[in-house]
Amino acid sequence: MNWFVKKLLDWLYEYYNQSEKGQIETLKRQLIAKEEQIAKLGDEISQIGLKNMEREQELLEVIAELKDKESETLKPEWLEGHMSYKPKRRFVSKTKDFHRQFKKPQHAFDESRILYELLKNNNLLNAKKTVSNMEKIQKLITGAIEYEPDKEDNWRPVSDVLIFGFGDCDDSGGIAITSAMGMAGWKADETFCWCGYYYPKGKEKDSKDRFGHAWNITKCDGKWYVLEGTDQKAKPVLWETVKNKYEGSWGGCNWKFEGQIAGGRAYL
Description:
Blueprint: H1 3-16, H2 18-71, E1 79-80, E2 88-92, E3 97-101, H3 113-121, H4 131-144, E4 146-147, H5 158-164, E5 166-167, H6 169-184, E6 191-198, E7 211-220, E8 223-227, E9 237-238, E10 246-253, E11 258-261
Parallel strand pairs: 4-5
Antiparallel strand pairs: 1-11, 2-3, 6-7, 6-10, 7-8, 8-9, 10-11
């Protein structure tokens, strides 16, 4: 085969395969574009996963920090013995409806992601211990929970109460506000769910008009305040000034401690 014939055959081959080569090049470009899209999507998914991991890690760090602080907190001298009141939780299913008493009232308190995010979104994590911030936390909780009395005693987890938006005194003023105060930065010897009798008219005016009740007590600047959980308009008030209405004779608890006020006293 001479040189001219070889060149002619090569030219004919290139000419008749030109269309197929163009299609191959187009497919290559499309494949590269798809690979770039997949890589970009993978990066976005990784970023979302990273953000979720960061949020989880942030929550774990806050919980760890609180636990470190709590390990240094000692039971206050004024708190002794055990609660006379025994909290219970109700379990309801298709075939069962019963109550179980907590082995320790402290077990009624759970770490709540929902509560953590609620406080974080309102800039109340590690809050400065002031009456103003106490009121903000109180309003935040009472604004999220509508008062609804129990058919029977049931100390619900704080996440359940916040999800459904209903609860009675031990749910709102008791567990929810106390948990919120602790997560906001108050220590285990500075905030409690307290139980006893409430006298609507005051014990001195009518000692027979009373009912069992639960509320929060929190210490600020060396003084104890009552944080009522069943009234959205309520503000922190010094327990000393409302001792004729809030008789804490059944004891109190939080996530770490339980007991009654030493000396048989009914208020702090």
